[in-house]
Request: fold
Amino acid sequence: MALHLQRDFHFTRVLGRALRSAAGCNLAVGISGATPWTRRNFARWLFEDYPRALILTPDRWQRGALGGGAFGDPPAPSP
Reply:
């Protein structure tokens, strides 16, 4: 658990440094609106439905990690 939190903290510090500049903010806004997927999922990432450092930590990747989340469609019932 400590390793996961340490990586999230490190990513947050790097992101915070990037957002101190106008260029970094413009880049972040541009990325968040670049595609329909990023527009749909940016707020979920921002408000931590996904771990912040998920994109940089492949060991956390698993099928469904970027799925519907708490308010997505419920899974289909098992036969």
In short: Residues 2-10+17-57 form one domain.
